[in-house]
Amino acid sequence: MAGGRGLLRSRTVMWSPRPRRRRRVVFTTLSRKTTVVPSEPIDARTHRVLSGASRVAVLEVIRADGPLDIQAIATRVALHPNTVRSHLDRLIKAGLVESSVSARVTPGRPRLSFAAVAGTTSGPDDSYRMLAGVLAGAIGASASEPGAVATEMGRRWGRQATPLDEGVGPLDGAGVVDRIVTLLDDVGFAPTVRGSDQAVPIDAAGDPTVIELHRCPFVEVAREHRDVVCAVHLGLMQGALEQLDAPPTAVRLEPFVRPDLCLVHLAPGATGAHAEQ
Question: Which domain of life is it from (predicted)?
Answer without folding.
Answer: Bacteria
